[in-house]
Write a structure and sequence with these properties.
about 250 residues, alpha/beta, 6-stranded mixed sheet, two-stranded parallel ribbon
């Protein structure tokens, strides 16, 4: 059995979780944040799909990435990473998406990571206790003689709900040197090559361009920043704990 850990991680939080799983299992980790990769997995392989939670849903680009990864009744574990608010329908949506592409869900995990809008919420997560719980889950998973399908939590009618989209669109400051890092690394190709401006209809507010900016010259407009902090900060009051499904 070969193990693969796929991750979509615009600001690095989900990548931290994926890298930990990779290290523990001696797996191959595969970054699908920016580009699609054509892959086919065997029935005796094991896949982990690690994605961040956006408004209780799977990020839109993950649909395109998953269309290029094919399973053969391959067992897979869904891992939802969120900024201490809620996972809502992400795991069931991801499980359905994986099933359409030839995978069967044999486990799931909810892990807390820094929030994309305000990294102070969820800062230092996953912490030592989180990692210990994740390791215990991985040990139990590998100890199972037969990996059987597991139902993920969430509302099966998630597709009938309107996606939450906040008008949080980063923009370049005068210090921008036009290096193109944000343009080349945007998961939605939502940044213009000239002027590095955001195409608002395409932007999913993942904050990757701010996180990757070589001169720290991308930011949210002050009003948007104030709104995002006002919305996000209360989420950090109660420390959430990881959850696992096996």
């Amino acid at each position: 059995m070969k193990t693969y850990v796929f991750y979509f991680s615009p600001t690095g939080g989900t990548k931290m979780v994926a890298n930990y799983i990779t290290k523990e299992l001696g797996a191959d980790d595969i970054d699908i944040t920016v580009r699609c990769l054509d892959m086919s997995l065997a029935e005796d392989d094991l896949a982990f799909f690690c994605v961040p939670v956006y408004g209780g849903r799977v990020p839109i680009p993950v649909y395109e990435r998953m269309a290029h990864i094919k399973g053969n009744n391959t067992p897979a574990v869904m891992v939802a990473c969120y900024g201490n608010r809620a996972v809502e329908d992400t795991l069931i949506e991801m499980s359905d998406l994986a099933k359409k592409n030839g995978f069967k869900t044999v486990g799931g995990a909810e892990m807390i990571t820094p929030h994309a809008f305000n990294p102070e919420v969820g800062k230092f997560r996953p912490d030592e206790d989180d990692r210990a719980k994740l390791k215990a889950f991985l040990d139990k998973l590998l100890a199972k003689q037969t990996l059987t399908e597991v139902q993920m939590p969430g509302d099966p009618a998630y597709g009938d709900k309107k996606r939450t989209k906040l008008p949080l669109f980063p923009r370049p400051a005068k210090e921008c040197i036009g290096c193109g890092i944000c343009f080349n690394n945007c998961p939605m190709k939502a940044i213009s090559e000239v002027g590095m401006k955001v195409k608002k209809k395409s932007c999913i507010s993942c904050m990757r361009c701010i996180d990757m900016c070589s001169t720290s010259s991308r930011h949210l407009p002050p009003v948007m920043q104030f709104i995002s902090e006002a919305v996000v900060m209360p989420m950090g009051i109660i420390k959430k704990s990881p959850k696992f499904y096996l």
